[in-house]
Design a protein that fits this description.
Length: 130
Amino acid sequence: MTSTRRNTWQRAAVREFLAANDDFLTAQQVHAQLRQVGDKVGLATVYRALQSMVEAGELDMVRTPDGEAAYRSCTPGHHHHLVCRSCSHTVEIEADAVEEWAHSVADKYGFTDAGHELEIFGLCAECSQR
Ligand SMILES: [Zn+2]
Ligand SMILES: [Zn+2]
């Protein structure tokens, strides 16, 4: 098998895994969980696969409060996230008030083509009870 074909297979494994997973995961977490189910994927390959999938718009990436990159296969289109700091449980949220506010602030200062990123980190209902 050529290395290109092997990488394609590994990338498919990463994509499939994230498609079946609802939470934001770091490259290390993806790597560890793929190894657990017996996929012999290298950490560097996981990193590269995640990076190229973000560039292709297949994955959302957020920075955790620790500064780590975390990845998730999201629904297409603009949205925001609530992310649990403890268990990584993630909820996609719409934030109309944020959209309006961001648009009007950009407008006020003459900015066009303005985008924004906003994620809310906290403890989910289950983790709050522990
Ligand atoms: Zn939680
Ligand atoms: Zn928004």
